[in-house]
Design goal:
heterodimer, A: about 120 residues, mainly beta, Immunoglobulin-like, about 0% helix, B: about 110 residues, 6-stranded mixed beta sheet, 5-stranded antiparallel beta sheet
């Protein structure tokens, strides 16, 4: 069964350091999402790509977070500098098309758990 | 702005019992998703509900959607321990910039 690949699975870093997460969506999935999930809460959308273009980054803290999907396939989410409040699970998901087009289910990767000390 | 409310947030139930989780949302939407998350793991899609009156069933779980009442239910029949997890509903905001708005999740513990 096709999967969304994410790495690293776990990352421990000190505050003010830089950290990067990588995501490889299911082959052929045009839409890619980065979510942040704080323990005990639902996922919060950080950024959504359609192919290589950003569709929505309204909740991305742009002073420290950046995301790219240069060739419209895999994607990187970067945090610099990391802060204590960034400790969370970072989830990548992909879908065949846009929300609103058919069932268009989001398939999630295993996530990258970040701990900032 | 679309808001999604789940209740209960925590549910402890005995094996063999039935129960229902509710997902209310505040503005019009035409699709709703249910996901399951095991502790420390990622989210697994359970159901997609695309129209008023839609009902989907898989094993001991059945989900339904009433778009007029802006309500979805996830019904658990004869619960077993393996169903212990957190269940999220997510609603498509159906706006110009479509995205999913997530509930806080219902943490379900099924006890022997």
């Amino acid at each position: 069964e096709a999967e969304v690949a994410q790495s690293p699975r776990y990352k421990i870093t000190e505050k003010s350091q830089a950290v990067a997460f990588w995501c490889d969506p299911i082959s052929g999935h045009a839409t890619l999402y980065w979510y942040r999930q704080i323990l005990g809460q639902g996922p919060e959308l950080l950024v959504q790509f359609q192919d290589e273009s950003v569709v929505d980054d309204s909740q991305l803290p742009k002073d420290r977070f950046s995301a790219e999907r240069l060739k419209g396939v895999d994607s990187t989410l970067k945090i610099q500098p990391a802060e204590l409040g960034d400790s969370a699970m970072y989830l990548c998901a992909s879908s065949l098309g846009f929300l609103g087009s058919g069932a268009n289910v989001l398939t999630f990767g295993a996530g990258s758990r970040l701990t900032v000390l | 702005e679309l808001k999604v409310e789940q209740n209960p947030l925590f549910l402890s139930m005995q094996e063999g019992k039935n129960y229902t989780i509710y997902c209310n949302y505040s503005t019009t939407s035409d699709r709703l998703y249910w996901y399951r998350q095991d502790p420390g793991k990622s989210l697994e899609s359970l159901f997609v509900l695309l129209s008023n009156g839609a009902v989907k069933q898989e094993g001991r779980l059945m989900a339904s959607l009433d778009t007029k009442a802006r309500l979805s239910t996830l019904h658990i029949t004869a619960a077993v321990h393996d169903l212990s997890a957190t269940y999220f509903c997510a609603v498509d905001n159906a706006g110009n910039n479509r995205k999913l708005i997530w509930g806080l999740g219902t943490s379900l513990a099924v006890n022997p």
